[in-house]
Design brief:
The complex is a heterodimer of chains A (364) and B (97).
Chain A lengths: L6 H10 L7 E3 L6 H7 L13 H8 L9 E5 L4 E4 H11 L6 H11 L6 H6 L5 E7 L1 H5 L14 H16 L22 E3 L10 H4 L8 E7 L2 E5 L6 H13 L10 E7 L1 H9 L4 H8 L4 E3 H6 L4 H5 L8 E3 L6 E5 L7 E9 L8 E4 L3
Parallel strand pairs in A: 4-5, 8-11
Antiparallel strand pairs in A: 2-3, 4-6, 6-13, 7-12, 8-12, 9-10
Chain B lengths: L8 E3 L23 E6 L5 H14 L3 E6 L9 H10 L2 E5 L3
Parallel strand pairs in B: 2-3, 2-4
Classes of the chains: A alpha+beta (364), B alpha/beta (97).
Chain lengths: 364, 97
């Protein structure tokens, strides 16, 4: 092994391969394995890394959990999913073994009744699981919370989100045109995963806000659509910026949606600087934001005609309601150091009627 | 690697489960005398559609029972499915908006 380090993979398969229970699928010598995987419907439309035993065993080195341990019942088919099956799909997605604990925790979170992955697939709305990673693990495995954090180019971000989606597709059986009935879908349904820029924010982190210790590794899953940019390049004060951000947030999903759907606000470093300069912490920001997010129901009704308008009660004429239910706006700090933009990720039906944002601690 | 000698061997990423195949219940030739369940999935105006169906089914001699899912975003609870299966000859599920 000292002269041929590559042999370790062969030895691992020879002596550790029996711990794997998944069906073996042989590829003919003249068959192209990538094409074969497409034909079997195991991919999301992009090529995957062929899940050989040696790769899967190497992936499993990333966790202390046993391959046969059941991680979750995966919707929509509510199939028992083992650590091994998650590892296979993580290989296919292109993950490194060090990412596996994040994928496992995210799969657990996505498969809870609260998160309601079945409904998220079945809905005609183009929403999917948005993953935010907090804690030291994000930096350790090379996740991106900076330039282009919500975009392409970072292996950890892209492949962790993709692995979760592949588990839902391959193990849970959730496929477009099957249980997945999204009218348009969204690029975010391929993979939407990033980490929070914790070092660069004077605020508590998303995970802290959700009750976790700052040193804990946590993944939060939020049911959301693709991000929309909120531009404000003019505000020089926190008071002005909070007002401008509120304008954008009020339009999340639709002006007429009040309290029924959550949102995620991703604040950029340059926007955060306005709040830092003014000494605002997270709590102060939320307090200042709240009055700007009060929606006058009469205003909505004025814009309505036809059947929906008739459903509105005249008693609501003077009523104002917050755009988001209490706790229904998740706020994260991420993005490159230059750029006076933030982003809003619109949610889906919230609470017991729809989906609850769900956090899970990431364990080795 | 030994697995590359002939063609590689992959591990199945799916659940490897085979769904149980069930035959459809026998179709009824007519509506008269049947008990038909109307399942409202709880979307806006589903009731408008189902009210109209109930009217038509009643005129054709069917007994109609109404059911509703707690929310359209989740599968119908097992107890509700059981109730419909044991009380009705047929069920119509309404999608609406």
């Amino acid at each position: 092994m000292t002269v041929d380090p590559g042999r370790i993979d062969e030895l691992r398969v020879r002596f550790g391969g029996s711990s794997l229970n998944s069906r073996r699928v042989e590829v003919a010598s003249i068959e192209d394995e990538t094409e074969m995987i497409f034909q079997r419907g195991w991919t999301d439309g992009l090529p995957v890394v062929p899940p050989t035993a040696s790769r899967v065993l190497r992936m499993l080195e990333g966790t202390t959990r046993q391959p046969d341990e059941v991680v979750a019942l995966v919707p929509p088919n509510l199939v028992e999913c083992t650590v091994e099956k998650v590892a296979i799909n993580a290989v296919m997605a292109g993950c490194r073994p060090t990412y596996l604990p994040v994928v496992l925790a995210a799969v657990e979170a996505v498969c809870t009744d609260d998160f309601n992955m079945h409904g998220i697939l079945a809905t005609t709305m183009g929403v999917g699981p948005v993953l935010v990673v907090n804690g030291p693990i994000a930096k350790r495995i090379g996740m991106n919370s900076g330039v282009n954090a919500l975009g392409q180019g970072n292996r950890a971000n892209l492949t962790i989100g993709r692995a979760v989606q592949l588990v839902v597709r391959n193990v849970g059986g959730g496929r477009p045109g099957g249980v997945d009935r999204a009218t348009h879908g969204s690029p975010a349904k391929l993979s939407f995963c990033f980490s929070e820029d914790e070092a660069g924010t004077p605020w508590t982190t998303l995970a802290e806000d959700r009750g976790f210790d700052r040193n804990s590794d946590v993944v939060t899953v939020f049911c959301g659509e693709a991000p929309r940019i909120l531009v404000d390049q003019k505000s020089r004060s926190a008071e002005s910026l909070v007002q401008m951000l509120a304008e954008g947030l009020r339009a999340s999903i639709s002006h007429d949606v009040v309290m029924g759907m959550d949102g995620m606000l991703v604040i950029s470093p340059e926007h955060m600087a306005r709040f830092r300069d003014s000494g605002w912490d997270r709590e102060r920001f939320m307090t200042e934001l709240a009055p700007h997010l009060m929606i006058d129901l009469a205003e909505i009704q004025l814009n309505r005609s036809g059947d929906l308008g008739q459903e509105s009660s005249e008693n609501n004429a003077d009523l104002k309601l917050p755009k988001f239910r209490p706790g229904g706006l998740l706020v994260v700090h991420a993005g490159g150091s230059a750029g006076l933009f933030s982003a809003v990720v619109g949610g889906w039906l919230n609470g017991p009627m729809g989906s609850e944002p769900t956090s899970r601690e990431i364990t080795p | 690697m030994d697995e590359s000698k002939t063609g590689i061997t992959l591990l199945d990423p799916t659940s490897e489960s085979t769904p149980t195949k069930r035959d459809l219940s026998p179709r009824s030739a007519s509506i008269g005398g049947l008990t038909i369940g109307l399942l409202d999935i709880n979307k806006p105006r589903g009731d408008v559609f189902l009210d109209r169906l109930e009217e038509h089914l009643g005129q054709r001699g069917a007994t109609v029972l109404r059911f509703a899912k707690p929310t359209f975003t989740k599968p119908a609870p097992a107890d509700l499915r059981h109730q419909i299966a044991t009380q009705c000859d047929a069920v119509i599920e309404a999608l609406a908006d």
